[in-house]
Amino acid sequence: MDASDLRNDKHATPRTAARRAFLKTGLGAAGGLLLSFCLPSAGAAAKMAPGPAFAPNAYLRIGADNSVTVVCPFVEMGQGAYTSIPMLLAEELEVDLANVRVEHAPADEKLYGHPLFGAQLTGASASVRGAWEPMRKAGASARLMLVSAAASTWGVEPGSCTVAQGVVTHQASGRKLTYGELAAKAATMPPPTEVPLKPASAFRLVGTPAKRLDIAAKVNGTAKFGIDAQAPGMKVAAVAACPVFGGKLASVDDSKARAVKGVRKVVKLDDAVAVIADHTGAARKGLAALAITWDEGPNARFSGAEWERQLEAAMNGKGLLAVNEGGYAKLVEGGARQVEAVYMMPFLAHATMEPMNCTAHVRKDGVDIWTGTQAAGRAQDFVAKALNVDPGTVRINNFLLGGGFGRRLEVDYIVQAALIARQVSYPVKVVWSREEDMQHDYFRPLYRDELAMALDAKGKPVGFRHRFAGSAVEARYAPAWMKDGIDTDAIDAAASPYDFAHKVVEFHPVETAVPTGFWRGVGPTHNTFVIEGFMDELAAGAKADPLAYRRAVLSKEPRALAVLELAAQKAGWGKTMAPGTGMGLALAVAWGSYAACVVEAAVDAAGQVNLKRVVSAIDCGQAVNTDGVIAQIESGSVYGLTAALYGKLTLENGRVMQGNFHDYPVLRMNEVPPIEVHLVQNGLAPGGVGEIGCAMVAPALVNAVFAATGKRLRRLPVEAEQLKQA
């Protein structure tokens, strides 16, 4: 298996583990309490044996020194998992969050498989959703065992004891014991069979604005990302892959490269070539000195325009029926008036601040990988397959991620590093250039959407049809997640949250040479944009206020209606706007959450968009860290606005033409408007927040542009040429 094989591997299903949670205890070598428990996952039961306190099959360690360590099954990539997940456990354990230390979980899908996916993944706005009950139960179980240990020591009933800040107190006598003092004895206590959890009214941490546990290290420079990895004897590699999708390495003249001081070796792969050197400068210089001939293969003439033509043609065929409610066809046959529109969404790169990188050391007795990945178990499996070794011999040393957005769910860069390191005896750090990163991404798919609304005699919308064509990411990444052959992510939110009695969603999966992947919410970010833009069109056609138009068809979604009205009220919806300025709103229902957004923007005569203000409201059920929720919506807004204004990749001659931030820019600090986020707290089970801000802000922006200019945009990005006054 070569790195390029990953792009077409349709058998890359995640390993699965049992959909059940259980608890075991063991006495650690240092006299600490080790609580091993598994988040619910799918498949065969995971068997965990007691082990020393530093064993990787644990989420919680309590040391004799009162230390509390949480082994987090979700990676930290800026979203706050290393704070929100420990908060859940600390809430029930009754310890201060400031006293908790967090460790990365090792690659072990039997122990750390996500309950929603059956794989060890961080993504899909699902970390808190998956950990909500298991982590709280873990903390509560530990607390009960510690109280039992104290009660046994004092010869009293456990019910006569209270717990606060890691100390058990016997109320009647005032005697106290710390968790550290109780750890060894608690390890001998039987785990409780029933674990009652706190009601929301008793929460002390959950629902508060907690300070991020990872921020101090990021500020003082001690935080370690994958690109910071160091290993004894390590060398550095620069790499160039064939610029054409599916192309191969034909030949390379490396004579000049080998003459560069510090260059150690030139490594040839099936679709790439790497130069290993003592340091980055020599590696880059050596790479530039190579004379490479590429076999560009069958995609050498492929273009974005050709792909759009293929998508349009695909819509003439029969698609996969994902939703079929009521009788839309009969409505039309009966004379209902149809309003139709075609929307287009472009390919998008992830453009994480930390480029793809991995350090690998391939030895006879095993493989060490140092990197940042959202899918440690997948990385372990794919490296083992590429090197033809047992997965148990591959150790993934995971680091903080300098941005993920779905890109680091892929493991191509990790497999590539392992293949390069296999050819030498020392560790090799492979760091992609920004150009390699941007041109060899797993891109957010390009979609073509054909929408139609059936209106009754009074012009009221009664039936909705949504047909679209594009890539099915799940078909490659995890076919087991698909339902009846349909990519469940691609159709997510495609039916709209509105209460139309007649709905049809038809998906036409079409693949091309361009590798596609998850991008901070593929389905809902795509579907929310086209539906919310279309709803605005319909409101304009009915000469109705966009808020009132939506309100009239949300009687079955009170949570959606509530956030829509809250965002509008906080934004001052309906106020008089200056010429060339407008407000647009959008609603997003996805990942178990409800959110609405109002964007205020001005457009000048040259067609330039000036963002004035973003106001959002979100109902994500019970917010764990309220500051974290706000930060995620702010972050998603910036990422979504960046894509809406600048996110466009052009394909010519089988390759991506953009290569760096000069031609694929991000929103700069001076362009970011004030962003307000208003939370709806209702105590319901948590929903996801990592991607919903990204989903709702782009349609709100184009709706604001329409309000300001009267020009309707049906494809992104928003370009000045589209809005320039004649």
Q: For the terminal residues, how far apart are their CA atoms?
A: 56 Å
How many β-strand runs? Answer: 28
What is the radius of gyration computed over CA atoms, rounded to a whole number of angstroms? 27 Å
Strand portion: 15-25%
CATH class of the largest domain: Alpha Beta
Structural class: alpha+beta
CATH topology value of the largest domain: Aldehyde Oxidoreductase, domain 4
Q: Poorly predicted ranges (pLDDT <50, ≥5 residues)?
A: 11-31, 36-57
- Number of helical stretches of at least 4 residues: 19
Per CATH, the architecture of the largest domain is 2-Layer Sandwich
What fraction, in percent, of the residue positions are helical? 25-40%
Widest beta sheet: strand line-up: 11-12-9-19-16-17-18
The fourth-level CATH homologous superfamily of the largest domain is Aldehyde oxidase/xanthine dehydrogenase, molybdopterin binding domain
Largest sheet report: 7 strands, mixed
- Choose one word for the global shape: globular
Mean pLDDT over the residues = 91
Number of domains: 3
Describe this structure in words.
- This protein has 726 residues and is of the alpha+beta class.
- The strands form 7 sheets. The chain has a 7-stranded mixed β-sheet with strand order 11-12-9-19-16-17-18. Strands 1-2-3-4-5 form a 5-stranded mixed β-sheet.
- β21, α13 and β22 form a beta-alpha-beta unit.
- Residues 11-31 and 36-57 have low confidence and may be disordered.
